[in-house]
Amino acid sequence: MIYNLAIYIYVSAVRLAALFNKKVSKMVKGEKEAFSVLKRQIDPQAKYIWFHAASLGEFEQGRPLIELIRKRFPQYKILQTFFSPSGYEVRKDYKGADVVCYLPLDTPRNVRRFINAARPCMAFFIKYEFWKNYLSELHRRGIPVYSVCSIFRPNQVFFRWYGATYRNVLKCFSHLFVQNEESVHLLENVGVKNTTIAGDTRFDRVLEICQEAKELPLVKLFKGNNHQTLVAGSSWAPDEDIFIPYFNAHPEMKLVIAPHVIDESHLHEIESKLQRPAVRYTQATPENVGQADCLIIDCFGLLSSIYRYGEIAYIGGGFGVSIHNTLEAAVYGIPVIFGPNNYKFREAQGLKGCGGGLEIQDEADFHRQMDHLLSEEAYLLSAGKAAGDYVKNNAGALEKIMSIVRL
Questions:
Q1: What is the pLDDT of residue 85?
Q2: Across-strand partners of 230?
Q3: Burial class (CB in 10 A: 0-12, 13-18, 19+), 384
Q4: Number of CB atoms found within 10 A of residue 300's CB
Q5: pLDDT tens-digit map of 368-396
Q6: Which pLDDT belongs to residue 377?
Q7: What number of CA atoms fall less than 13 Å from residue 323's CA on the CB side?
Q8: pLDDT tens-digit readout, 313-355
Q9: For residue 168, how many other CB atoms are within 10 A of its CB?
C-alpha cells in the first residue's frame, strides 16, 4: 500500500511536470500511447521476450543479449520498452526489436493491462530496474524474469533497516546476473542466492562494434601520417576548456572533437576557442580535410568508429554530471583520459587500476599526462595495451547468461 501510494503521488508529479517540461511531456504521451502500440503491433500467435531499459545506457547493455537471442532463437520476437525519452527517442526505430514502446508507470492497473497485452514468455530488466508491481505480477504469473548487468551497493533501499518489505521484490527474479562480488554478498545477506557474476555485456558489445567499425575515408585523410592524434568524444564545454588550449599550443598533434551536444551555438563556441585550422565533418571534402588540424564531428553515429584513428582518447563528462562511454575508445587499445567524476563507473575504475585509464583533476594535470604520453612512446603503448587488454579480459558476459537462461 505504501509503495502504491508513492507511485500514485509520483504519477501526479510527473503529469504536473509534463506541463512545463518537453522531455517529461514526451514520456507521459508515450506511456499513454504504449497500450495502443501493443494493440496494433503485438502478434497474438508469436512468443515475445521482453527487454526493459530505463534509458539509452541500459539499452546498450541489453542490446548484445537481444541480438544474440535473435540470432540463435529466431522463433521468438522481441519487445523493447523504455522509461526515458533519451532512450526511446534514439532507439524507437531499432531494427533488432519487433515492438518498441514506453513502459507505462508501475500502477497495478497499468501492470495488468500491459502484461495482458504484451503476453511475454520471458522478461529481462536491465541494471537498476526494480518496478515492484511489474515484477510481482510477472512472478505471480510464472513468467521467468531476469536482472542483467545489475550492481548492488550497501546504501540501496534493499539493504537498509527500513527496506525489509521492498527487498522482497528481489525474490521475484528467476536469476540475477550481477557485475561484481560485492553484489553477490549483499544479496546473500538478505536471503537472495540465485545470483551469478556475469560481468557487463558492454564489453562484449564494444568488441563487436570494434570488429564492425566503419572505414571513414575523410577521417583517414584528415589524420594522414600524423601519429599524435587525440580523439575527444562526448565533450562538453568544461572538457573543451581543458584540451583545446593544449592542442592550440602543440602544432605537432591533430585533434578530432565529437561534442556531446551538437547545435550551432556549441559548434560556434568550439570554433571560437580554436587557434588552428578546423573543419566540420559535414563540410569536409577530400580537398580541404587534409589542410585542417582539427576535425569537428557535427553529426551522430560515427564516434565509436572514429576512435580507431586516434593514439589517445579523451572522454567527456568528467567535469560535469559523469563521464561518458570509456569502453568504446579503450577497445581500440589506446589510453583513455577522463575527468574526476567517474567513481560510479566500474569500468572507469578498472581502467584506472590497470593503467589504461588516466584520471585528471584540472587543465594542468591534463597537460602533464599528455606531455608524458606524447614524449614517451613506451608509456603510450603500454597504457594503450592495458586499456585494450582490460576490455578483452572482461568480455564473456553473454555466454555466462545464456548458459543459465533456458529458451
A1: 86
A2: 255, 312
A3: buried
A4: 9
A5: 999 999 999 999 999 999 999 999 999 99
A6: 96
A7: 29
A8: 999 999 998 999 999 999 999 999 999 999 988 899 999 999 9
A9: 16
DSSP of 81-121: EESSHHHHHHHTT-TT-SEEEEPPPS-HHHHHHHHHHH-EE
How far apart are alpha carbons 232 and 295 in whole angstroms? 10
278-280 and 254-259 strand pairing: unpaired
CA distance 192 to 325: 31
Instruction: Report residue 6's pLDDT band, with 50, 70 and 90 as the boundaries.
Output: confident
The CA-atom distances, in angstroms, between 63 and each of 70, 180, 298 are 11, 20, 26
The count of C-alpha atoms lying within 13 angstroms of the C-alpha of 265, restricted to the half-sphere facing its C-beta, is 3
Strand stretches in 248-355, DSSP E: 254-259, 278-280, 294-296, 312-315, 336-338
Q: Report the 10 Å Cβ neighbour count for 159.
A: 15
Query: Residue 195: phi, psi to the nearest 5?
Result: -125, 155
Locus of grid cell 569537428: 296
Nearest-angstrom CA–CA distance, 81 and 103: 5
Cell numbers of 298, please? 557535427
Question: 378 CB contacts (<8 Å, ≥6 apart)?
Answer: none
Q: How far is CA 346 from CA 326, 372, 390, in A?
A: 11, 26, 12
**CA–CA dist 136, 346 (Å, integer):** 30
pLDDT bin (cut points 50, 70, 90) of residue 294 is very high
**What's the pLDDT tens digit per position in 248-277?**
999 999 999 999 999 999 999 999 999 999
**Which H or E run includes 56?**
helix 56-72
Residue 84: what pLDDT? 87
Sequence-distant (6+) residues with CB within 8 A of 123 are 49, 50, 51, 52, 138, 143, 144, 145, 146
How much is the pLDDT for 165? 82
Chain position carrying cell 562480488: 181
Q: Are 100 and 92 in contact (CB under 8 A)?
A: yes
Question: How many angstroms separate the CA atoms of 129 and 127, rounded?
Answer: 6
Mean pLDDT calculated for residue range 59-64: 91
Q: Exposure of 260 by Cβ count < 10 A (0-12 exposed, 13-18 middle, 19+ buried)? A: middle
Whole-angstrom distance, CA of residue 247 vs CA of residue 250: 5
CA separation for the pair 368, 195 (Å, rounded): 43
Q: How many residues does the chain have?
A: 407
pLDDT exceeding 90 applies to what percent of the chain?
A: 81
